[in-house]
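Internal ticket - ligand job 314, NAP:
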Amino acid sequence: MSETIALVSRIRVDQESGYLCALATAMPDEKITLFRSMSAVERARARIAIVANPDLADVAALPNLAWVQSLWAGVEQLVAAWPANGPPIVRLVDHEMSRTMAEAVLAWTYYLQRDMPAYARQQREKAWSQRIYRKPSDMTVGILGLGTLGTEAAARLTQAGFKVAGWSRSAKALPGVTTFSKDDGLIEMLRVSDIVVCLVPLTTQTRGLLHAGRLAAMKAGAALINFARGPVVVTRDLLASLDSGHLSHAVLDVFDEEPLATDSRLWRHPDVTVLPHISAPTDFGTAAAVIAENVARYRQTGRLPGGVDVARGY
Ligand code: NAP
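stdout (structure tokens):
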């Protein structure tokens, strides 16, 4: 038996026990223990920590870590406070999460393409009015971020017949996707997109990425889907753009603060759809299987899974 793997988390107890159970099932030969239940000797010897919104003081109380596995795909909170000499962070890259996110992107793109917000409003007003149908092939969906999630979403949208554009930090070539990079590429993509989908990680570069100037560069009547992180979009500027009628609708799954405060204007805005961070939840079983593979490879070869670049922020 190797040393104990620490599960360091500050999540709901039912979620925590769900993960613990899935991890134990996926790694029957490993001992996985909640940080708070570990002995001083176990803490001193632990080489691997699996973390979900951890208290960093708890992570620091594991002095012998070789690496830290996040249960989330987004690691901005860890990266922001990670000590310079901290162990490498590995984020969750799970094909099932990419599939779920691509499904969400397609579902909410259809919601906007088929004018569902307008028809819901018309029903409340008992208004019988047939709006002009827009074919997917006449619409461009622009994706901000062409990583694990953005790439799969782009493929799903292309299969569904939408024209797809994508923007990333480094230049990329993807089949069927018009790609952009750099600042002028961003503006160009915003100008041609009927729907903009946000799938970039939150970093010092992407915080406030969609501010008033860039929202103004979007097509009149375009819509926004933010499935990345709240602070990538400047909420005040988004509300102003919706109020002015320049943007037609925003589907928001992520917010500056979560849960969204009950007095937030976003809840009551007629052109905003609020979702409670559900576009791509981590699946206990598949996440545990991915982590089990990472752990097994590390035990067999000493090789660490591909890590997060803390300086780059993702
Ligand atoms: P990823 O594989 O790291 O991909 C990130 C993409 O964003 C890459 O294409 C990267 O460009 C691009 N990017 C990063 N910084 C940029 C910048 N400054 N300018 C332009 N492009 C930039 O990440 P992922 O797995 O696709 O996940 C993306 C994010 O989705 C996560 O960080 C997380 O916040 C969010 N997420 C949300 C949910 C939810 O339920 N709402 C679930 C999972 C994840 P390069 O290709 O050039 O590196």
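Auto-summary: The radius of gyration is 21 Å. The chain has two domains: 5-94+282-301, 96-274.
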